[in-house]
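User: Show me a protein chain along with its predicted structure.
Assistant: Here is one chain, sequence first, then structure tokens.
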Amino acid sequence: MLTLQSVLLHVVAYLRLVRDRVSPRLAIALGAACLVLVMLYGFFMAVPINFPTGQVVSIKKGSSLVEIAEGLHQADVVRSPITFLVLMRGTGRSEALQAGAYVFPERVSIFTIVRVLLSHETRVDPARVTFPEGSTAREMALLLEDAIRGFDGEKFQELATPHEGFLFPDTYLIAPDATPEEIVVLLRETFKMKVAELDPEIKRFGKSLEEIVVMASLLEREARTVDVRRTIAGILWKRIDVGMPLQVDAVFGYIQGRSTFHPNYSDLAVDSPYNTYMHKGLPPGAIANPGIEAIRAAATPINTKYLFYLSDANGRMHYAADFDGHIQNRRLYQ
């Protein structure tokens, strides 16, 4: 790669080579011409000091060549947008330049920039990111940071947390230059599209979508199969109706910011609006982003005589109609 320093060294070496073979006046003229060339190189062709090594450089779809040149200049990829335009048009292949994300693993000259952009050598393919059902905004941010180089997970979490529960968990192909704002919009729009198929069931049940999503987020963390979720949904909705606290342990993982959490007695007294032992009714928001089956279960609960449930070491559920039966189940299965 040519640098300003290497160009200067070549110029000095050249002047030393010719100084004994030409007249002093011609030597001075050659020296002046070389210095002008060095200055022109430094202004138009030298690699910018803040070249974005290893960072994602975006070329937006539909951008004109002039807009691309200016964007590369603003990103410190090229020193002179005019030089880039001249070199690109000189190839006669400027139409081959494709939109997308590019990464340059090292500092390279403007000539190399033109070549790799036309050959798409450093173009980055979309990242395949899977958000498991029941993921929180915090967990989604970590997955995005792992999948996309330089992604701002902290900004994503800040923007996504207010929409917890309404960010649809699924597998996405995400452009490596996608912003946190764009991804939040994608997850929310996908949620709206997926949940639209449940509109008849939600309307028949009579609860608001917000209530159903909060309940679904609890079910997502409390059970795995559809029938068990629907049965637990019936129990939890009934607890709300009779004025009994939900007493769902899954909320404590959300309160503590952990993927899994098994509360002890001191945790049950933690001062949080999400503490379903201290506060009756649903939490003020979802504790995760539920999948479509958990949302369906929340909207189609199975009505039973039960008011209590617990799972044994093998994950099997055991139900009881009253507290005495629940205590007996705890003795037998926990």
